[in-house]
Amino acid sequence: MKTALLISTYNWPEALKLCLDSLSRQTVYPDEVLIADDGSGQETRKLICEFQGRFDVPVKHIWQEDKGFRLSEIRNKAIAGCTSDYIIQIDGDILMERHFIEDHIRFAVKNSVVVGSRSSLSEAYTRVLLAGSVLPGKKALDRNSNNFLNSKRVPYLSPLLAGYNTSGRNRFYAKGCNMAFWLEDMLAVNGYDESFVGWGREDSDLVVRLLFKGCSLRRLKMAAVQYHLFHKENDRYNEASNDLLMRKRMEEGSYFTDNGILKSSDILDELQMVMIPT
Length: 278
Hints:
Blueprint: E1 3-9, H1 13-24, E2 32-37, H2 42-52, E3 59-63, H3 71-80, E4 86-91, E5 94-96, H4 100-107, E6 112-115, E7 119-120, H5 123-131, H6 138-143, E8 178-182, H7 183-189, H8 202-213, E9 216-219, E10 226-228, H9 239-252, H10 267-274, E11 275-276
Parallel strand pairs: 1-2, 1-4, 2-3, 6-9, 7-10
Antiparallel strand pairs: 3-11, 4-8, 5-10, 6-8
Helix pairs in contact: 1-2, 7-8, 8-9
């Protein structure tokens, strides 16, 4: 099984540096790294170029022009350029515990979508991390985070908890900062629905469609630990519209989106245009 790590980022190179530093500490590396960049400036590009020389695996920088919050679209462009079987997805403002990739690979099961957890760092400690030059160890991160149980790593318990919160109303809740899915399943549902513009619901919509397609939902607990850097909440100007799209999806029961990866015949040509060379 070849594995890709998909990292979403937008104009916060200081956080992305910490994220990539945590990647350099992993016990197992992915086969490729896909950085989905929703319109960052030259500072982010320079940082990624520096890290491309530090890893022994390809680090692909997929960029699109900044036209507002278009996370679904840039993730689709990154997925379109993926050459691996399995995609582990995070955001560029999280730090991965050193077994993060290893835990996800161990937990992978065909025809399933995985949703993990995160532990959030305090505002004060986030400032310390951004100002520092050395990434701290797990104990220091644990002391300065909330969601204590989300920072616990007891991987042999993970299979026993895979069915946690996978039924009822909350089963569709997902955070894209800690997810994993098979490329073949993503292509079958045509990736993210790019109708979701602005903050909110694009990840839950994806989970809904993967379940409609026939995938099982597995919650990854007590493993694949990550720490979320503090930041102000994104503008939720389009939240009501995205909620409406989500309700419509639930009513229709359809798993394929016409506004996804293959929405147009020139998507692969466009991908080649925005791929930034090493």
